[in-house]
């Protein structure tokens, strides 16, 4: 999954399941 800085992405994994989060930096969660 490729995301840009500041993009709103839906976190599917972890405790943030189903929660929209704003990606400020390249997060390891997106891998």
From TrEMBL:
<dbReference type="GO" id="GO:0006412">
    <property type="term" value="P:translation"/>
</dbReference>
<dbReference type="InterPro" id="IPR008991">
    <property type="entry name" value="Translation_prot_SH3-like_sf"/>
</dbReference>
<dbReference type="InterPro" id="IPR005824">
    <property type="entry name" value="KOW"/>
</dbReference>
<keyword id="KW-0687">Ribonucleoprotein</keyword>
<keyword id="KW-0689">Ribosomal protein</keyword>
<dbReference type="GO" id="GO:0005840">
    <property type="term" value="C:ribosome"/>
</dbReference>
<feature type="domain" description="KOW">
    <location>
        <begin position="2"/>
        <end position="29"/>
    </location>
</feature>
<dbReference type="InterPro" id="IPR014722">
    <property type="entry name" value="Rib_uL2_dom2"/>
</dbReference>
<dbReference type="InterPro" id="IPR005825">
    <property type="entry name" value="Ribosomal_uL24_CS"/>
</dbReference>
<dbReference type="GO" id="GO:0003735">
    <property type="term" value="F:structural constituent of ribosome"/>
</dbReference>
<protein>
    <submittedName>
        <fullName>50S ribosomal protein L24</fullName>
    </submittedName>
</protein>
<dbReference type="Pfam" id="PF00467">
    <property type="entry name" value="KOW"/>
</dbReference>
């Amino acid at each position: 999954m490729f995301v840009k800085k500041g993009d709103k992405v839906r976190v599917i994994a972890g405790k943030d399941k189903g929660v929209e989060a704003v990606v400020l930096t390249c997060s390891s969660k997106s891998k």
